[in-house]
């Protein structure tokens, strides 16, 4: 059993390509907060819930794959960004590590161009949050907390990658 003085779990937030430009890239679509500001808010929220928050951003698919493979996180929140619609390799990496994860998108991918409406991740994620801006990340952290602490309201039936209950 984990003592009250220790953090309960590690929640990894992975940001895909071009998210390093948050705050300057199309702010009408993605908002005015920078990635550094967003990460600080996410880490603070995770800590307030008793967890360690870790964030990582890369524009390189292989770097994200390596980070997924090497991570000791208990839960992953993933914004695959443009890789949402193209990366079977990232999908396979998430399946290989078999960790619970939520897919997050700042914009509503279903209100955008047709090619952006396909996700290689949503069917293997526990859930998706799309179109809620940075608040989607905060909701995902709260959901991770509920999931990790087995609280009522969290889905524990497992993801499509693991048909056994968690």
Layout of helices and strands:
Elements: E1 10-15, H1 27-30, H2 35-48, E2 52-57, H3 61-70, E3 75-79, H4 88-97, E4 101-105, E5 127-130, H5 135-148
Parallel strand pairs: 1-2, 1-3, 3-4, 4-5
Helix pairs in contact: 2-5, 3-4
Kindly list the characteristics that best describe this protein.
single chain; 166 residues; alpha/beta; Rossmann fold; five-stranded parallel beta sheet; 5 strands; globular; disordered N terminus; disordered C terminus
What does it look like?
The chain has five helices and five strands, in the order E-H-H-E-H-E-H-E-E-H. The chain has a single domain, classed as Dehydroquinase, class II (Rossmann fold), CATH 3.40.50. The chain has 166 residues and is α/β, with parallel strands linked by helices. Strand 3, helix 4 and strand 4 form a beta-alpha-beta unit. It has helices at residues 27-30, 35-48, 61-70, 88-97, 135-148; strands spanning 10-15, 52-57, 75-79, 101-105, 127-130. It has a five-stranded parallel β-sheet with strand order 2-1-3-4-5, with helices on one face.
């Amino acid at each position: 059993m984990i003592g009250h003085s220790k953090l309960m779990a590690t929640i990894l937030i992975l940001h895909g390509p071009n998210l390093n430009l948050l705050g300057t890239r199309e702010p009408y679509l993605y908002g005015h907060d920078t990635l550094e500001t967003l990460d600080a808010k996410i880490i603070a929220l995770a800590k307030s819930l008793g967890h360690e928050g870790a964030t990582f951003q890369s524009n390189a698919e292989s770097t994200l794959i390596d980070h997924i493979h090497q991570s000791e996180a208990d839960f992953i929140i993933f914004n695959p960004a443009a890789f949402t619609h193209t990366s079977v390799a990232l999908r396979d990496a998430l399946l290989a590590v078999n960790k619970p994860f939520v897919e997050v998108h700042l914009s509503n991918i279903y209100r955008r161009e047709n090619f952006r409406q396909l996700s290689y991740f949503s069917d293997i994620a526990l859930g998706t949050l799309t179109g809620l801006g940075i608040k989607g990340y905060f909701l995902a952290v709260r959901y991770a907390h509920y999931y990790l602490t087995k609280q009522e309201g969290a889905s524990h039936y497992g993801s499509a990658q693991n048909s056994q209950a968690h």
